[in-house]
Specification:
homodimer, UDP-N-acetylmuramoyl-L-alanine:D-glutamate ligase, nine-stranded mixed sheet, four-stranded mixed sheet, 38% helix, globular
């Protein structure tokens, strides 16, 4: 039985960083998020791919126990081409071929409608809302987005935030969405819209969890080499909701642990291109890094 | 008996931020550092001021028990004019009038030569080294610098790093000094030069402590309003060495606590211009925020 439903993109990524290049590698927000969640729970995906989607990628997801019955197949797969420069902070998009994503309408299969945990990973916010409409009665909703949607569909982004229990934003998005340089102010503005928690992802600087009257600061893991940060935010979200779905404890205290598990998966993901590092990642390695996170913030 | 000797600048600062402006307010690296250190220990300053230095500023430092016998008086006081734009990350220097600082030669009074803890706060690295030459046998040396010296006197900066036990760099300086975008790599390069510890100050993102084989990640305090970040790095360093001088425990474990105390003072300092917030800061407030730092790290 799947216990986390994830809507997002499944993509082919062509990526260049100072440390190498991959062509049409497996990517997309739902891909990274579901792979990360699969370490703790049984996620299923709502998305669309094309006839060109390599069978080995489908097999990789299937072998992780990820539910693929909500993935439509149509035309060609969404293809994103991006490059990271020396500072690795933000990708420069070189090409976006939406392909089958362009006219994608989310459709939740009957068997997924009763899933209680939903992750609205980065995709058109209208489709995020569409998924929520089709679900029976989701109990816990996590929502992510990106600057593109904040610029072009701000109204829908706000609507999705209002329906979410936990909102994920990176620092740049939070500042943009609430027109302030202060992340604390931005988080407080987001909380006013209704969610129980707002998490601001700061890449190498860690993550901030804001809830009513409480604050948690998660450290960034001290990676000496970041090979490819693509998908780290999605891995964070997937790890976060996956851990919560597994433990069924939605307290602020457990959110903190979930933030660290999300960070653990994300920090591993940055160590190699595409899903290369996550493919071989073990629970023992996850637990080991979790303990390292404890150690680096002890005083 | 003074227990921390601090060489650095004592300045008049004219500063504009989005939240206000001050004219010829009390500033300078030695000023902020000694004021911060004075909450824990008895610092003394090596610096130079001019005939124009307001008596009320001298009184303010004296009343905090800060030793002023190493402050030479000559010509006019160093005057810095800077502005912070909306993002408050870095000051734009609008004017620098070195005045008496231009030909300053550090001279350590006899009575300060036996002090065991030395903070080489931000000033010309040649004068930092000069102070070390004049000291009897300092046991614990903390060293800070800035991008200007890394660009113009890199050789002396490196020499000072080699003599220090703990080196403080902000993230931009660390990247510049070791020509790498990775703070972990930069810190490891700095450790190779000899210091026991390297601390990378990241402003709102907290601070990273690197020692042989160990890492500590100190959170940034979630300030909703940063009125003026001037002097925060100096306050951090002053609080850090002040706490260590008081506790006389130079273990990695105690460095971590000292990093938090430094962060506590620095975060308060950002709440108002010049020394305005620190002037009224109490030990009870310091301990309260220290506990908040504990709370925001717990998971």
């Amino acid at each position: 039985m799947n216990d986390v439903l994830i809507i997002g993109t499944v993509a082919l990524d062509t990526i260049e960083t100072p440390f190498g290049r991959v062509d049409r590698a497996l990517g997309g927000s739902a891909t990274y998020a579901s792979f990360a969640a699969s370490f703790f729970s049984k996620p299923a995906i709502i998305s669309v791919i094309g006839q060109d989607f390599p069978r080995e990628y489908t097999e990789l997801l299937k072998n992780k126990g990820i539910g693929l019955d909500g993935i439509e197949i149509k035309d060609k797969t969404f293809h994103w081409e991006g490059a990271y420069e020396f500072n690795m902070n933000e990708a420069k998009t070189k090409k976006t071929e939406l392909n089958s994503l362009e006219h994608f309408k989310a459709k939740v299969p009957e068997k997924y409608k009763s899933i209680k945990n939903v992750f609205l990973a980065n995709i058109d916010p209208e489709q995020q809302l569409e998924v929520l409409k089709q679900m029976d009665e989701p109990e816990f909703i996590v929502m992510d987005t990106m600057n593109f949607w904040i610029i072009h569909k701000k109204g829908y982004v706000i609507e999705a935030i209002k329906k979410a229990d936990v909102v994920l934003l990176n620092d740049g998005e939070a500042r943009m969405l609430f027109s302030t340089v202060s992340l604390v102010k931005a988080a407080n503005e987001a909380l006013k819209l209704g969610p129980k928690a707002v998490i601001i992802k700061k890449g190498e600087h860690g993550a901030l969890l804001f809830t009513e009257g409480k604050h948690f600061n998660a450290p960034g893991y001290p990676l000496e080499l970041i090979k490819d940060p693509t998908g780290c935010g999605d891995c964070f979200g997937g790890g976060f909701i996956g851990y919560l779905a597994k433990t069924k404890d939605f307290s602020e205290r457990n959110f903190r642990k979930a933030v660290i598990y999300g960070s653990v998966i994300a920090s591993h993901n940055a160590e190699d291109f595409s899903l290369n590092r996550l493919k071989s990642l073990t629970m023992a390695e996850i637990e080991k890094r979790y303990r390292e996170f404890e150690e680096i913030r002890e005083f």
